[in-house]
Amino acid sequence: MDEIVTTISTLHQVTPAGVRRGPRPGRLCDMRQSRYDAVVVGGGHNGLVAAAYLARAGRSVLVLERLGHVGGCTVSAAMFPGVDARLSRYSYLVSLLPDSIVRDLRLRFEVRQRRIASYTPADGSGLLVNNTDPGRSAASFAAVTGSDADWRAWQDFYAATGRLAQRLFPTMTEPLRSRAQLREIVADDATWDRLIERPLGDTLQRAFRHDAVRGVVLTDAVVGTFARATEPSLRQNRCLLYHVIGNGTGAWHVPAGGMGALTTALAGAAREAGACIRTGAEAVRIDPEGEVIYRAGDTEYTVGAAHILANVAPATLARLLGEDGGGEPPEGSQLKINMVLSRLPRLRDAATDPRDAFAGTFHINEGYANLESAHTEAANGGIPALPPCEVYCHTLTDRSILGDDLAATGAHTLTVFGLHMPARLFRDHPDEARKRALDATLRSVNSVLAEPIEEGLLRDRDGQPCIEAKTPADLEDELGLPGGHIFHGDLAWPFAEESDEVGSWGAQTRHPRVLICGAGARRGGGVSGIGGHNAAMAILRPRG
Ligand SMILES: Cc1cc2nc3c(=O)[nH]c(=O)nc-3n(C[C@H](O)[C@H](O)[C@H](O)COP(=O)(O)OP(=O)(O)OC[C@H]3O[C@@H](n4cnc5c(N)ncnc54)[C@H](O)[C@@H]3O)c2cc1C
Question: How far, CA to CA in Å, does 513 sit from each of 292, 310, 510?
Fold first, then answer.
C-alpha cells in the first residue's frame, strides 16, 4: 500500500465559487424532465466531470451517451473471453488530472507511482530512468552514451520543465491568460523559448548528443500526433508540453484498478449529486438556441437546455450543429495493442531485469532518427518498416485488475502504443492494414526481446491468443473519435490566442449556449477532466 499516491482528501480548503461542499443534499435525477439547466452530449470522463460540478452546484443535468456505458476513452474491459483481466482498453496512464478535481468531487480514486520512469534499449544495453535511484540512471546513461554529458543535460531539461510545470499547471483550471501573461507567470524566458517558441527538434538537437536520448524526449511530442520534430506548426511542442506539466511534476501514474475506476468514481459523483445519465442515447442534432435531439432505441427525443455542453470532438459538434467544421479534419496517428501474457518475456539486454524494463515506459525503436524516418515512411503512404512503439505493463504496479486466480500466476497485461500510424494508412483496406501494422509492430517489439512476444500470449476460453489491436479507424468507429484522434484534434496552447479569449474558460463556441467540455476544448486533451471542469466553471463562474 505504501506505493499508493492517495489523491483522495477531505482537507481541501479552497472551494470554487458555486460548487457546494460536503455531502450532497440529495437532488434526485428526474429523467422525465423536458428541459434541464445543462445537457451534456457525451458521457466521457470530461462530460462526467462537468455533470458532477454542475449538479453539485444545484443545476439539473442530463448526460446523453451514445454507447451502452459511460467513460469513452477512459474505460476498463475484460475483452478476452474467460480471462479474468480488466484492461484499460484505450487510455492507461494518468498525469493531467488535477488533484483539485479529485478533491472537489471527493472521488474514490487513487494513482500509483511507477518505480521506473522508462527503459530504452540502445547500443547493446539500455537507458534506465529510475524514479528512486538516480545513481542507477546516471550509470546507464554513461554506459550507453559514453559520457556524463547527456545525463546532466537530461537533468537540466527536466528540472526546467518541472519549474515550468509548477507555474503553468495551476493556470489550467483558471480563466485563460494571454501568451504574454502566461510567459510572465512562467518567468523563465530560456525554457519558454526552448519549448514554446522554437521547434522542439532544434531544442533537442542542441541539448542532447545521443540519438536514443533525443528520441526518448521526442516520443512525448508525437504521441497520437503525426508530426516531425522540426515542424514549424509546433504541434509537436504542444504535445510535449501536455506530457510534462501534469500536477506540476509531469509524472505519469498508473490508475489503481485501471482507467475504469476513474470513470466509476466520476459517474458515482455525478449521480450522487443528482445528475441523470442516459446511455444508449445518441445526439443526432443540436439546435444552438437550446435543444438537443437524440435517439434512444427506435425513438427520437427532444430535450431543452439552458446550456449544451459538448463532450464530443469539435468536428462532431460542428456536424451536429449542421456547420462546416473548418480547417483540416483531425487525424489520429497511433496503433494501440492490448495483450495478456503468461509471463514477461526475456530481453536481449541480459543485464536488465524484465521487471525493471517493463515497469516504466519501455521505448522500442524510438531513437530520434528512427522516429523521423518512420514519419517519412508513413507520410509516403506506408506502414513504417520498424514502427517506433512503447510498451506499458499495468500489472507490475497494480495487480488488482487481475482476478485472484490469474493474479496468483506470473501473468501480466501489456499495452503497446505504436507511433506514426496515421489514420490515412487504414482508410482503404482497414482489416488488411491493421494486420500489417500489427505484424510490423510486433516485429519491432521482438527486435529487443530474446524470445518472440507471441510465445507468451495467454489463450482465451476459445483458444485464441489474448491480443487485440486498435487503429485510428477502429477508434473512430467505436468511440466516435473523428479521424481516430485521441485528443479530439491537435492539442492547443494553454493560453489565449485571440484577444477575446483572455479571461474566458476556453470552452466557448460562437453560440452562447453551447460550450465544449471535452478533450477538444483549449487545455482539454488527455485524461484530465480539465475540459469538463472549465466548461462547468464557464457556467458557474462566467467572469472567472
Ligand atoms: C487508445 C488511446 C490511448 C490513450 N492513452 C492516454 C493515456 O494513457 N493518458 C492520457 O492522459 N490520455 C490518453 N488518451 C487520450 C484521452 O483518453 C482522451 O483525450 C480523453 O479521455 C478524452 O476524454 P473526453 O471525456 O473528452 O472524451 P471521450 O472519452 O472521447 O468521450 C466522448 C464520449 O462522447 C460519446 N459520443 C460521441 N458522439 C456522441 C453523440 N452523438 N451522442 C452522444 N454521445 C456521443 C462517445 O461515445 C464518448 O463516450 C488516450 C486515448 C486513446 C483513444
Answer: 12, 11, 9
Instruction: Confirm if 335 and 421 have CB atoms less than 8 A apart.
Output: yes
pLDDT of residue 26: 58
Cell triple for 114 = 511507477
pLDDT at 27: 73
pLDDT tens column, 222-238: 999 999 999 999 999 99
* Nearest one of 347, 305, 296, 306 to 128, comparing CA atoms: 347
Q: Quick check: 243 and 220 in contact, CB under 8 A?
A: yes
DSSP string computed for 43-110: -BHHHHHHHHHHHHTT--EEEEESSSSSBTTS-EE--STT--B-EE-S---BSSS-HHHHHHTT----
H/E stretch holding 377 = helix 368-379
Return the C-alpha cell found at 245. Answer: 506539466
CB 277 within 8 A of CB 43: yes
pLDDT tier, 19 (very low <50, low <70, confident <90, very high otherwise): very low
* Residues contacting residue 409 through CB under 8 Å, at least 6 positions apart: 342
Rg (CA), the chain: 23
Phi, psi of 50 (to 5 degrees): -60, -45
The residues with which 413 forms a beta bridge, in sequence order, are: 340
User: What would the pLDDT profile of 247-258 be if each residue is shown by its tens digit?
Assistant: 999 999 999 999
The pLDDT of residue 20 is above 90:
no
Instruction: Give the H/E segment covering residue 255.
Output: strand 254-255
Does pLDDT of 21 surpass 80? Answer: no
Pocket of ligand 1 from Cβ distances under 6 Å: 41-47, 64-67, 72-74, 90-93, 96, 282-283, 311-312, 316, 336, 475, 479-481, 486-487, 518-519, 524-527, 531
Site to substitute for ligand 1 among 292, 527, 528, most atoms within 8 A of C-beta: 527
Quote helix, strand, coil % in the chain, to nearest 5.
35, 20, 45
Sign of dihedral through CA atoms 422, 423, 428, 431? positive
Report the alpha-carbon distance of residue 214 to residue 39 in Å, rounded. Answer: 45
Residue ID of nearest Cα to ligand 1 atom 30: 72
Q: Report d(CA 249, CA 92) in Å as an integer.
A: 18
Side chain identity at residue 450, one-letter code: A
Q: Are 144 and 122 in contact (CB under 8 A)?
A: yes
**pLDDT of res. 543:** 77
Residue 3 has pLDDT above 50, yes or no: no
Residue at grid coordinates 519558454: 192
Task: Give the percent of the chain with pLDDT over 70.
Answer: 95
Q: How far apart are CA 389 and CA 364, in angstroms?
A: 5
- Region 74-89: mean pLDDT is 98
Cα 136 to Cα 119: distance, rounded to the nearest angstrom: 12
Q: Which amino acid is at 276?
A: C
* H or E segment and range at residue 469: strand 467-470
Q: For residue 2, report the distance from its CA to the centre of ligand 1, in Å.
A: 31
How far apart, in whole angstroms, are the C-alpha atoms of residue 297 and residue 1?
A: 45
Q: How far apart are CA 58 and CA 35, in angstroms?
A: 15
